[in-house]
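Supplementary notes for students who missed Thursday's class. We covered one full example, reproduced here. Read the sequence, then the structure, then the short commentary at the end.
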Amino acid sequence: MIDAVHAFRPTLTAGRLAERMSVDQALHQLLCTARPWPVAVPGLRITRAVHRCGRLAAQLGILNSCLSRSLAIAALTANRKRVQLFIGFRADAASARSILGHAWVTVDGRNLSDPPGSAVNTSIYAISRSFPISSR
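Structure (token representation):
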């Protein structure tokens, strides 16, 4: 429960920002306001807390998507080595006119946002943003 308390504000903020601004702007604002969890806290514990808070955010009418959760996870793990936020896209096989997208976070090459292997199959084209940002 205490984990959800610490993840609550960054998760809600990420949901609000993801609806109103670009990914870079939202990530920058989160990195300036959210305090990363200590490196000793396992990444899976952070991910579970963010997912719990995301479900609550949805009940409050705030965006709970892979993008908003990944922004929150990225901000809460920004003090770790090799943190990357990925946004991937691929054509929807069912419809020639739509694109499927997905966002996920890796820390030291390990996917924190999704079950093992799921994000790898999500994208043909991926954008990656590495941090921590040096201005921090």
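Commentary. The two ends are 29 Å apart (CA to CA). DSSP finds four helices and four strands in the chain. If anything here is unclear, bring it to office hours.
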